[in-house]
Amino acid sequence: MLKLEMLPAGCGDCLILEHVHEGRAHRILIDGGTPASYPALRARLLRESRPHFDLIIVTHVDVDHIGGVLELLRDRKLGVTYDDLWFNGFHHMQPFLPDALGVSGETLSMRAVPTSEDLLGPAQGESLAALAKGGRWNEAFRQGPIVALDSGALPRIELPGGLVLTVLSPTPATLQKMALVWAREVRAVEEAMSRPDASRTDPVDRLGDLDVKALASEPEQRDDAPANGSSIALLAERGPHACLLAADAWPHVLAAALQRLLRERGLRKLPLDAVKLPHHGSKRNVTREWLDLVECNNFLFSTDGSRFRHPDTQTVARLISAKRGVRLHFNTASPPALRWQSESLQVRYGFTTVFPGSEGEPLVLTLG
User: Fold this and answer.
1) What is the mean pLDDT of the segment spanning 318-342?
2) Is the CA virtual torsion 95, 61, 336, 44 positive or negative?
């Protein structure tokens, strides 16, 4: 049995995956949400006298994934411990930079960039690297990069207690793209976050105007943000139970990795108990390209909708128009999520919605 908790994490991800083996609980933390959402993670861990994780994973350097982990590791009073930390810092990406660039690691590093806590992305990546230095960091990969190489079997790590994690993303190419923009990538995101989102013009209560079939058939565009492309996306398996934890991974990278996995296993579709959808349900990450490769009824959205009104209506339309019996799990009762509580839409397309029992509580999903 696997238990997955999606904590309220603002516009980001903060997941706890737990299972019990021989009477002992084994847990991993995947991302920590934003710095502002850290109190929810802290309150969750304060229930225990000695909070410990077998593994902490920071999927990539966007602030809504890395920010809460920085707060956690700086929180001396809480005193969380862990056996390993998975995170690709700049030095893990350097081997994938082409020699022809003639750019040294010194030139691209963040040494000349101020380390104030309000800088996003790579600056926070450098902060995490400083906190991790001297501790256990990518030990399962001999301190090297976490990457799905272009050939051979996908990396497969078995943790104590029998949980198996298969790496689906990033690839050498996506790590290279992130390395090339390490010093500037998320500053652009920081500026975008400080501006009103001009795309937020559709009122969220116009349920009658939603044409699910038209939304599902809209032309698809792929995410191309380097930070998202560098995401560590994983397949988590224990016994017959499996969960796809897709971070903010690019859709074509997920599709290619899933196709490799299906060939290895001699399957047409990958059976899954749950999918934590990439990039909070963005239409640019949740595409038919990879959805057609999985067999799943439980789709998880981690966001409060405060940025870009995720999840996109096109994403949900793609999910509910493809099959009946879909269950949409939201960790926050945000306006973009609540619109799918429409009884008429649920009856017509045969889907249901699931929300936390009360505001501020995690959404808990038991697999098996």
Assistant:
1) 96
2) positive
